[in-house]
Design goal:
The model has no long low-confidence stretch (mean pLDDT 78). Helices cover 48% and strands 27% of the residues. The strands form 2 sheets. Strands 1-2 form a two-stranded parallel ribbon. A two-stranded antiparallel sheet has the order 3-4. The chain has 2 domains: 2-38; 46-87, no CATH class. It has helices at 2-17, 20-38, 57-64, and strands at 47-52, 67-72, 74-79, 82-87. The N and C termini lie far apart (80 Å).
Length: 90
């Protein structure tokens, strides 16, 4: 245990002498501040939902709690990388 502690003390002194410890403590803080300038906050993000006409009103109300809801008669589905538009019957 004494040997492990002496290695720790030696590495600690070396990191202070070479300013490595300072970089390890300040670097992540600077990166966090830099990223916060470029990445928008998650509170600013809005959700948008598209539902088919005739969907149950309770489901639409549930979606409206989280974001804007748009109803449409056209059903768009993504199948194997291709968008397929289907007109729903009246």
């Amino acid at each position: 245990m004494k040997r492990v502690f002496s290695i720790f003390i030696r590495d600690f002194k070396s990191s202070i002498r070479e300013f490595l410890l300072l970089y390890m403590m300040v670097g992540p803080l600077l990166l966090t501040f830099g990223f916060s300038l470029f990445i928008p906050s998650s509170e600013a993000a809005t959700l948008q939902f598209a539902v088919v006409e005739g969907m149950d009103e309770a489901v639409v109300d549930h979606f409206e709690r989280y974001g804007s809801v748009e109803t449409s008669r056209i059903l768009r589905t993504l199948t194997r990388g291709y968008w397929i538009l289907t007109m729903l019957p009246e």
